[in-house]
Amino acid sequence: MAMATSTLQLTHLSSPNIATPHEVPFPPLFLLPRCSSLRETKQIQAAIIKSQLQHDISVLTKLINSCTANPSSSMDHAQHLFDRITQPDIVLFNTMARGYARSHYPVRAVDLFARGLNLGLHPDDYTFPSLLKACANAKAIGEGKQLHCVAIKHGFHHNVYVHPTLINMYAECDDVDAASRVFDKILEPCVVTYNAMITGYTRNSRPNEALALFRKLQASNLKPTYVTMLSVLSSCVMLGALELGKWIHEYIRKNGFNEYVKVNTALIDMYAKCGSLDDAVSVFEDMQYRDTQAWSAMVVTYAIHGRGSKAISIFEEMKRAGVQPDEITFLGILYACSHTGLVDEGCKYFRSMVDHYGIVPSIKHYGCMVDLLGRAGRLDEAFRFIEDLPINPTAILWRTLLSACSSHDDVELAKHVMERIFELDDSHGGDYVILSNMFARAGRWEDVNNLRKMMKDRGVVKIPGCSSIEVDNVVHEFFSADGTHSESRGLHRILDDLIKELKLVGYVPDTSLVVHADMREEEKEATLRYHSEKLAIAFGLINTPPGTTIRVVKNLRICGDCHSAAKLISMIFGRPIILRDLQRFHHFKDGKCSCGDYW
């Protein structure tokens, strides 16, 4: 009877065409590759034990392979089986290392390797790639450097399989310079190695080096892959380099990479974040097949460009197409509702995400809800939302509410929020600046001085405003009131004249944004005049053809005075201006902004 029960339990692993229950051979090793859980693997192991083959090395090896195929739930059992083998070979060690590299405890692969060396085993071509991947996943650069030394000792540092994983390990551990040194020593790098280095530069926010290496790859006899294009497009996003992105798009078309859904999705993301909504829509509409990621990218695109209704429309179309939304899709739809004041709709989608789709909210989803309520002025409700969370709130959540307090000038609540932030992180300069500006607007100069002293005592510095603009495939950067750019003096004079023209059509500098009690009005005006986004816009006016769009990227939130000035500049000069700040895109045209001044 027991045998019959075991046989029936195993039959659900096989297809109807393989065998009937009484015909299933024991042990049914041919079913191991089809196991999708540890429970199923253990069922077959039970049959193996009944067949008295539990000590057979080849059988144990197959069981270990099955466990490492699903390492998140099976590595402990794989280790238990591995420990029963008195003389494991290097192939088994490599299998275990691959499993650990994908598990929650990747560094255990290195400990296992040390054990293998003590047993006298010699690594082969497949040993170091798994070990280095484990170190990359764990960000264990110390162990990674030791493995690098061992690879050199055993003569594997020139191995074609080791090169890319070694580069990736250093890059993932935030030492991209070490990765670059490894790459530079390779006499004839293959395309996989190029990809590892280009990706490393991109992930470490060094897009210029990534693009330079891509050009070097093009000059070689090697053909880039779709992986190359994904990293190159990410670099364009970091630079806000639309024209370069368009050239990359044409390269993708000519080389057939537009057949890949991932590449098209990356193109949507690139166009969206470089400010060209129309191009992003065009790529999406031309896709023959769209997966969840592609639909989500389009939802996010409409969201960050302030098209809340379109984001909702594309989300509903996605559901009608039978495509299941994921956590990214809901991030986009919540962001869209937040930035267009659709509070009730946002709350409805948040409940739907949890109740209907069973998606557990992440800290980012909670952040969108705090932002949604905070922007709408429902500050107390936002405060209670954070207080009632099922997880510990982060400093970022409280910062979101602090920003909303600033927008609605609720100084007392901002003080309470600041206390919560300081309990978690007191090193972020932006927090001090926001509260200091609120105190200044309220005339509480003693509180302003106390905050500034606190910043000085704690060594906290304010992040300078920086704006960039791409002209003729060259990205120019400007810092507020900075004269380091070669054309800064000329730009200052142009801005002086530009502000005079703006005043003729009603522009009034908002000097309340300059919170220095000892400054005269003229000095405050001068400070506002040379903000980085105004410098970048002025540079665009004189260096691009009349009528063309000016595209600017800023590292911080655009200030209210620059927002007002940009609207008037777009009207006076007939120049559309697209400005991407830390939170969203602003499309200025004919004296209006796409945000409807809700930002």
Brief characterization of the structure:
This protein has 599 residues and is mostly helical. It is 62% helix and 5% strand. It is built from 30 helices and 6 strands.
What keyword list fits this structure?
599 residues, Serine Threonine Protein Phosphatase 5, Tetratricopeptide repeat, 6-stranded mixed sheet
The pLDDT mean sits at 89
How many strand units? 6
State the helix count: 30
The major sheet is characterized as:
6 strands, mixed
Proportion in β-strands: under 5%
Instruction: Give the fraction of residues assigned to helices.
Output: 55-70%
In whole angstroms, the N-to-C terminal distance is 70 Å
Taken together, the total number of domains comes to 6
- Cα-atom radius of gyration: 29 Å
Order of adjacent strands in the largest pleated sheet: 2-1-3-4-5-6
Categorize the overall geometry.
Answer: globular
Given as residue ranges, the uncertain stretches (5+ residues, pLDDT < 50) are 1-25
Structural class: mainly alpha
Please explain how this structure is put together.
The chain is mainly alpha-helical and 599 residues long. It folds into 6 domains: 1-63, no CATH class; 87-181, Serine Threonine Protein Phosphatase 5, Tetratricopeptide repeat, CATH 1.25.40; 188-285, Serine Threonine Protein Phosphatase 5, Tetratricopeptide repeat, CATH 1.25.40; 290-360, no CATH class; 382-462, Serine Threonine Protein Phosphatase 5, Tetratricopeptide repeat (Alpha Horseshoe); 466-593, no CATH class. Helices cover 62% and strands 5% of the residues. It has helices at residues 2-11, 38-50, 57-68, 71-82, 90-101, 108-118, 127-138, 141-153, 162-172, 176-184, 191-203, 207-219, 226-239, 242-254, 261-273, 277-286, 292-304, 308-320, 327-339, 343-355, 363-375, 379-387, 395-407, 411-424, 429-441, 445-458, 488-504, 521-529, 532-543, 560-572; strands at residues 466-471, 474-479, 550-554, 577-580, 585-589, 592-593. A hairpin with a 2-residue loop joins strand 5 (585-589) and strand 6. It is globular and about 90 Å long. The N and C termini lie far apart (70 Å). The model is unreliable at 1-25 (pLDDT under 50).
